Amino acid sequence: MPSPRPSRLVRLDPPFGITLGNELPLVVIAGPCAMEGMDFGLRTASALQEIFAAAGIAFIYKSSFDKANRTSGSAFRGVGMDEGLEILARIKSTLGLPVLTDVHTPEQAAPVAQVADMLQTPAFLCRQTDFIQAVAATGKPVNLKKGQFLAPWDMAQVLEKARATGNERLTLCERGTMFGYGNLVADMRSLAIMAGTGFPVIFDATHSVQLPGGQGTSSGGQREFVPPLARAAVATGVAALFLETHPDPAAAPCDGPNMLPFHELPALLRQLKAIDTVTKG
């Protein structure tokens, strides 16, 4: 049986006093799916900072400079790495927020690690050994996302690939499992199974309701199921929740159907904090 209480903690570098652990108070990683420019980044990060401060929940800002893992070649890609890292650096220096972003190639790992406080590996790339090890070799905290095609117990092998670099600041992320064509299902057993590795577990509540390719040249989603899945995951005792959110999801260039609008966050965060407090005693 998997251990219900992993002992490992993942600490972000100073000056940020955020530590992720399955026994510790909930942390939330949140932000728009993709960057949409400097002004948009600063505005959204500032608005989210206020929302999370009011909720009393530690917060890591997330946004992607490239959406490289898309079925359609016409899908929105993003602002690119150079501009994206400038945006993240400004958010850090202006607002004092820790930032997380995706890495898509081994070559991107080192420059992204110069700015990002936590790196993330896309789910589709979880079996790419050279890639996983290049990202882990930066020494930065890394969120290893489970592929939609992978069993939760197989993430132990991905974890060992990353640990072979000497990096122990690793988290495992559940983001749903393929359930036929164009659909995902979130198996809450996965959270307990991955917790059995002894490393912090993160639940991606918004990608778990994605409908891959559901709109032909882009993915659809069912954001109405984000709150119940988030509440269920927090009740299991996860270290962190991953939420993509946008001030106007209908106008977002990607993943709008599965992102939560900002105005829905305060009520949900109150619920999640209450559940987390009860679960962790």
UniProtKB/TrEMBL annotation:
UniProt superkingdom: Bacteria
Listed InterPro entries: Aldolase_TIM, DAHP1/KDSA, KDO8P_synthase
KW Iron (keyword) present: no
Boundaries of every DAHP synthetase I/KDSA domain copy: 17-277
GO biological process, any: keto-3-deoxy-D-manno-octulosonic acid biosynthetic process
Keywords noted in UniProt: Cytoplasm, Lipopolysaccharide biosynthesis, Plasmid, Transferase
Gene Ontology MF terms in the entry: 3-deoxy-8-phosphooctulonate synthase activity
Known pathway: Carbohydrate biosynthesis; 3-deoxy-D-manno-octulosonate biosynthesis; 3-deoxy-D-manno-octulosonate from D-ribulose 5-phosphate: step 2/3; Bacterial outer membrane biogenesis; lipopolysaccharide biosynthesis
EC number: 2.5.1.55
Subcellular location: Cytoplasm
Record has Transferase as a keyword: yes
Transmembrane segments: none
GO cellular component: a single term: cytoplasm
Catalyses which reaction(s): D-arabinose 5-phosphate + phosphoenolpyruvate + H2O = 3-deoxy-alpha-D-manno-2-octulosonate-8-phosphate + phosphate
Family: Belongs to the KdsA family.
Protein name: 2-dehydro-3-deoxyphosphooctonate aldolase
Organism: Megalodesulfovibrio gigas (strain ATCC 19364 / DSM 1382 / NCIMB 9332 / VKM B-1759)
